[in-house]
Amino acid sequence: MNTMPTAFRRLIPTLALSALLAAPAALVAQDEVAIDTSPQEPLLLSIDFAGGPVTEFVAALRSAAEALGRKTSPLNLLVAKDSATVQVPPLRIRFAELGDIVRAASSMLAPRHCLEVEIISGGNGMPIHVVRDINAEQFDSTPRLRVLPLRALTKTVDGESSNLALSPETILTAVQTALDLDAENTAPATVRFHESSGLLFVRGSERQIEAASEVVAQMQSDLESLRERERAMREAAAAIRNPFGVDAPPGGSGR
After folding, report:
1. Where are the domains positioned within the chain?
2. What is the pLDDT along the chain (255 residues), one digit of tens a residue?
């Protein structure tokens, strides 16, 4: 027979609930992992990388960090989308910081690629590191189209005493030579000349288009210099023939 007073029996659930609410959070949620954000010793990584894309390189760095067993200081490491396919050569490094390892890999890729680590931080959590190729846009292999006017190069200017204009074949050969010399790790560019309009169409990567544009710009600059020199020579010759700048009267001396 239960001899406990009724009022006391009603008080027991209330006391139990109060005790539960007052319990430390660590006792209520024991499965949560605490993240220690206090300053720690530099994360020194050792890596044996067999070579491959940046995504695999970053995965190897993460594995190296996890091997240290610092569960309270995880390494948040990502790869920028436009840099994921950059090929990193094999390397073996011992006890070095993350930034130094990435810079060492970048030095092996120069000048075509330049890897850097961007640190995103500002809150109370652990910083996020993003590996990116800052040359990605310059060496982007996505095909683009550019139209280059060539009429100023292929047509004779009025008043020229000699034909300084270039043939389309000369221009196309020069452009193609530049593209062939810069064809490393890229698909061949497509070059077409439309004779009726005097337009050159170049389809390729941003770097290939810039190479073709630079050739055309240099040829235009050289041709303009030649034309300017010829104009100066024509003016000098005219001044010798007519030093006073007036037409001689009919009959020669005018007397």
Report:
1. 42-133, 144-241
2. 555 555 545 555 554 545 444 545 444 444 455 555 555 677 899 999 999 999 999 999 999 998 887 655 678 999 999 899 899 999 999 999 999 999 999 999 988 889 999 999 877 788 899 999 988 766 666 788 999 999 989 888 776 666 788 999 999 999 999 998 875 556 889 999 999 999 999 999 888 898 999 999 999 999 988 888 888 888 888 888 887 765 555 555 544
- CA separation, residue 247 to residues 143, 240, 244, 251, 252 (Å): 60, 13, 9, 12, 10
* Domain 144-241 grouped into CATH 3.30.1370: yes
In order of 9, 13, 18, 33, 243, the CA distances from 21 in angstroms are: 20, 12, 5, 21, 109
User: Which CATH number describes the domain made up of 42-133?
Assistant: 3.55.50
- Alpha-carbon distance 225 to 106, whole Å? 41
Cβ atoms 191, 147 nearer than 8 A: no
Distance CA(56)–CA(89), nearest Å, equals: 11
